[in-house]
Amino acid sequence: MSIKELFEHSIEYEQQDLQALIMFLVIEKQVLTMDDDKSELDLYFLPKHNDRMGKELTAYKKKINAKERASCFKVYTKQGETLYVYTMTELQASAFAKSLNYEPLKIVYESDDRLMTFNNVNMKISEITKGRKAPCLLGINDIEQKYDGGDED
To answer: What's the pTM?
Structure first.
């Protein structure tokens, strides 16, 4: 998959941090091109680069006036329950789950267009989250999964 295709996916799934990283490396620094393979990004995800890249991306997002936007995340927990949380980032979803005394095992982004049953009514996530402030708990499903380490979707 090319960086261009990954960028298009990041737009579709509203992954703003990934969009910012790609724009920073392709447009700002010009160290990669949209035609490069996505594996070229692996270098920038190495733990030894986390602090520096975090600072660079924060400054870049401020420069381009990027606004953070909350999203829904599905958090699979060690307790066998699935939490649906509305947070700014996957990291915040993990921390929020821990604050509720759950041990996160896996966190998955949920699209705003996904239908969920909320108060016995099928609604899009975008309708459920309208007017809510992050972080917040949208719901808990104790029968949806019994985490086995595999992919759930």
So the answer is: 0.56
